[in-house]
Amino acid sequence: MRSTTNTIWAVFGLALILVLPAFAGGQWIKIFTSTTTFAMAAAGAGFLYTRLGMVSLVQVGLMGVGGWVTLRLNHAFNFPFEINLMVAGAVTMFLGNLIALPALRMRGLYLALITLMFAAGLDIVFTAKQFPNGAAGFWGVGTTFAADMRRPLLAQSDAAYLRYTMVWLVIGFVLIELHRRMAPGRAWALIRKSEAAALASGVNVTLYKTWAFGLSGLLAGLGGGLLAGSLGLLDSATFRASESVMLFALVIVGGARFWYGAVIAAVLFRVVPGLLNNWGVDADLSLVIFGAALLHAVMTAPDGLAGQINGAVRALIPGGKTAETKSDKKGAKA
Question: Quick one: average pLDDT of 229-233?
Answer without folding.
Answer: 90
